[in-house]
């Protein structure tokens, strides 16, 4: 969270606070951003896990079953990737990995991640300058439009545009939602509420696989459309949720809205004595303002251990 995270309170003190309904509702609604990401990863049937399945000793047939999504549905392949479809009509001639060795198909899956990478850098600035709430709203809108493109796709170009828009939504959501959850949660349960994002990612993957299993049984050329179209459900939840929730005190204070930030802090903590936490947030915001280039600061020698650890954590073992 290089762009937006420097405004977070960082003292770790256990300030006086109640677990208010506003906090619980806000965190549940915001964490649907994780559901949105997980669903899309599961629904498209990403095959980046192929070599992991090999490590676990799965056969080609088992790999095929585990990696299945809309990209393994015959109707979907026949519509957009006829070359892959033809390879699938000759079982036993080559491995399932080679059957899906198609540049267009790989572009379909990877375009989301490339777009998300670029969108994350844009979202760093919107999260900081416009707030977490508005950034989550933009994520929901991107994802809704991307879902419409994929659901109504008539050619590969529409699919790719849809995936790029979905990637923008993922980039914005992944930047704003974890930050939102951390800042709105009371310090003593901050970890528990923040992990909601990862939990919802996992639930999204599970739901996607269950839906894929059902839609793959549907005869005709619309099972894959149902799978892709249902991605709009978590997108709607995030969009509506971002309209309902309040912006975080950290975001408001960082943008100079001190009184509004203090008022919101009282609402989400459910107590009147918020002065100690308010002062810490103000101080954290002041320190953050002194960092002119967050990315350049991240590359400094004193921050390298944390940077290396965070990168290594993403490497599958």
Description:
The protein is elongated and about 70 Å long. It has a domain at 21-85 and 101-246: MFS general substrate transporter like domains (Growth Hormone, Chain: A, Up-down Bundle). Helix 1 runs antiparallel to helix 10 (156-184) and helix 9 runs antiparallel to helix 13 (223-229). The model is unreliable at 1-11 and 47-66 (pLDDT under 50). Helix content is 70%, strand content 0%. The chain has 19 helices and no strands. The longest helix has 29 residues, at 156-184. It is mainly α. It is a multi-pass membrane protein. One of its GO terms (cellular component) is membrane. It is found in: Membrane.
Radius of gyration: 22 Å
User: Major sheet: size, sense and barrel closure?
Assistant: none
Shape: elongated
The number of E-state strands comes to: 0
Low-confidence runs of at least 5 consecutive residues = 1-11, 47-66
Q: How much of the residues is beta strand, in percent?
A: under 5%
Average pLDDT works out at 80
Order of helices and strands: HHHHHHHHHHHHHHHHHHH
Number of continuous helical runs: 19
**Helix coverage percent of residues?**
over 70%
Q: Examine the secondary-structure arrangement and name the CATH architecture of the domain at 21-85 and 101-246.
A: Up-down Bundle
CATH classification, class level of the domain at 21-85 and 101-246: Mainly Alpha
What oligomeric state do these chains adopt?
single chain
């Amino acid at each position: 969270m290089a762009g937006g995270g420097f405004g977070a309170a960082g003292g770790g003190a256990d300030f006086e606070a109640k677990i208010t309904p506003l906090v619980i509702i806000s965190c549940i609604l915001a964490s649907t951003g994780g559901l949105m990401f997980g669903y899309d990863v599961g629904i498209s049937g990403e095959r980046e896990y192929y070599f992991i399945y090999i490590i676990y000793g799965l056969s080609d047939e088992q790999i095929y079953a585990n990696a299945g999504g809309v990209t393994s549905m015959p109707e979907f392949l026949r519509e957009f990737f006829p070359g892959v479809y033809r390879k699938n009509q000759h079982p036993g001639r080559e491995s399932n990995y080679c059957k899906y060795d198609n540049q267009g198909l790989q572009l379909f899956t990877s375009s989301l991640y490339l777009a998300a990478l670029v969108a994350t850098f844009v979202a760093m600035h919107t999260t900081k300058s416009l707030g977490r709430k508005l950034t989550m709203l933009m994520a929901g809108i991107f994802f809704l439009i991307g879902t419409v493109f994929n659901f109504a796709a008539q050619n590969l170009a529409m699919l790719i545009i849809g995936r790029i828009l979905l990637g923008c939504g993922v980039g914005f959501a992944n930047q704003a939602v974890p930050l939102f959850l951390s800042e709105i949660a009371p310090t003593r349960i901050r970890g528990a509420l923040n992990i909601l994002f990862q939990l919802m990612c996992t639930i999204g993957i599970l739901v996607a696989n269950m839906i894929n299993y059902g839609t793959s049984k549907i005869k005709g050329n619309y099972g894959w459309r149902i799978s892709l179209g249902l991605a709009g459900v978590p997108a709607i939840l995030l969009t509506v949720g971002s309209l309902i929730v309040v912006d975080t005190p950290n975001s408001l204070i960082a943008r100079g809205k001190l009184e509004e930030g203090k008022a919101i802090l009282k609402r989400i903590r459910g107590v009147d004595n918020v002065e100690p936490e308010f002062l810490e947030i103000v101080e954290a915001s002041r320190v953050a303002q002194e960092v002119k280039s967050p990315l350049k600061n991240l590359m400094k020698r004193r921050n390298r251990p944390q940077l290396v650890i965070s990168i290594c954590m993403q490497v599958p073992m």
